Amino acid sequence: MPHNLQAVLRFPSSFMDRGLPPGRGYRVLVGSAIVLGLAAILYAMLNGELFRPIRESIAEGNLSAMVLKPSLIWVSMGMLMLALRTVLWFSYRPFEAATRESAPTMTVVIPAYNEGPMVEQSINSVAAARYPPGKLEILVVDDGSTDDTWTYIERAAARHPGLVTAVRLERNQGKRVALATGFRAARGAILVTIDSDSVIESGALLAMAGPFRDPRVGAVAGKVAALNRDAGFIPRMLHVRFVLSFDFLRSVQSTYRTVYCCPGALAAYRASVVHEVLEPWLEQRFLGVRCTYGEDRALTNDILDRGYDAVYQGSAVVHTLVPDNYAQLCKMYLRWDRSYVREEIRFARIVWKRPLVPMLLAVFEKLITNLRFPVAWTATVMLALMAVSDPMVLVRVLLAIGVAASFYMLYYVYTERSMRFVHGIFYAYFAFFALWWIFPYALMTVRSRSWMTR
How far apart are CA 330 and CA 451, in angstroms? Predict the structure, then answer.
C-alpha cells in the first residue's frame, strides 16, 4: 500500500464525489426511498416473482422445504431487524464535541510496526488537531520495527518537542504490548488509540472527548474512512463498506449504547477503566492460546463487562489505509473473523449484564446476525441443487443480490452524496464469489496466529 499521504489523499474526485453535503430535502427524498424500499422488499417476499420457486418448494413439502422454510423465516426476522435498525439509525445524533475550555486531558497512543514514512503522517495529523495545548500528549510506541520506522518517529518527535514522546521496544512483542506500554505511561484522563497507517481530521480529538461528559460512557468509536479510496477497485469497494459499517451499523448500536467494537484506527477510552482491565486484557487467552489480534474488540468487551457504555461518534473521522489487493484483503478479514468468533462467545456472557432494553436489542441483533451463517450456507447448497434442474434459480439469486445491495446503498447515499455507491453493489457480488470461504476457514483455524500483521 502507498505510504505517501499526498499520493493517496485525493478526495473528492470530480466524478465519484459531488463535493456537497446532503441537504434536508435530499435526506427526506432518500429517507422516503428507504421506507418505500423496505415495503417493496416485503411485498416481493410475500407475493413477488423473485421468491416464487422458494414458496412453491415450501408448499410442496419436499426435502428442500425443510431447509427453505426456516430460511424464509430467518429472512423475515432479518427484515424486521432491518426495519428496527432503520428507525434507530434515523434517530441517531452525534454527541456534542468538547470545547477547548472543557476538554479533558488526553493521551493519544500510536503503536507502530514496520510502518515506514506513514507513521510520520499519522503523528503530524494528531499534532495538528485542534486540542488545547497542555491537555494533549502523544505517545508513539515502536514495537521493535526492523525497517526505518523509528527514524520517522524520531523526526516527528523532534518536530513537536514536549508534545510527542517516542518509545522504542527492543523486540517485536505484538500490538497489545505496544498499546499497554503507552497506556501505562499515559497521563491523560482519556486514552485515544490511532493506527500508525491512519490520519485524523482536525476536529476528531475534541469530538472524541465529547461523549465522556457522560460518566456512564467508557468507550467511544470514531468513524473510519478509506484513505487510499482511489488506489484501486478493492479500496473503492472498502470505502463504501466502511461507511455502511460505521454510519449505519455503529450508529444503530450507539442508540442503545452498545457498540460492539471500537476500532483501533480511532477509539477512545476512559483511562480509569482501562487501567482496571489492562492486565487481563493483555494476558487474554482463548482455547489455551494467547490472543494477539482483535485487541480493539476485546478491550471494548472488557469495558462493557465493567458496566460502562460504548458509543459511536460519527463526527470524529479518521482516514486509514486499506488493503489494495486480494491477498491483503483476505488477511484482514481473516484476522477480523477469528476475533469475531472469539469475542462473540465472550459477549454472549456479557450481554446479560446490560440494562434491559440494550440487552434485548443486542440479543435480538446477535441472534439474527449469527444465524445467517448456518442458514445462508445451507440455503446456498439447496439453491445450488435446485439450479441444476432450473438454471433460472441462479439468475434469481444473482438478481436478489443486486436488489438487496442496491437497497443498502440508499443508506450510503443518505449520508454521502456520492456516486461511489456503485462500488457497494460490486462488493456484494465480489463478496459472494470471492470471500465466502473466509469465515468458515477462520472458524476452523480460530486458534491460529498466522496471517497476522502484529
Answer: 9
